[in-house]
């Protein structure tokens, strides 16, 4: 699919299909009156999450898969918890525990070994 539609095409279609699915699920679960309680701010927040977070992340991911291949790109999923720990600290959260630092070291070693092997 990625070869046929490209990173942008797959990302756009994945995002709008998910938005429709969640809208239907929301109507079934919460009922139509719940839609009336949404404010412009709620809709803007949902739009930001759909476009800036989801679609951009998909474009970056599928572009990486296209360039590195699935095997090597898959190794990069280990970066997410490391980025979360770092972002938490940058946003004023507590410093990671020694166990988290150990996990970060394991992830870094795994990435170094995996990316070097390919």
TrEMBL record:
The keyword Membrane applies. Coiled coil: none annotated. SUPFAM superfamilies: Multidrug resistance efflux transporter EmrE. GO terms for cellular component: membrane. It comes from the Bacteria. Residues 6-112 form the EamA domain. InterPro entries: EamA_dom, EmrE-like. The chain crosses the membrane at residues 7-28, 43-62, 74-93, 99-117. Keywords: Membrane, Transmembrane, Transmembrane helix. Belongs to the EamA transporter family. This is EamA-like transporter family protein. The lineage of its organism: Bacteria, Bacillati, Actinomycetota, Actinomycetes, Geodermatophilales.
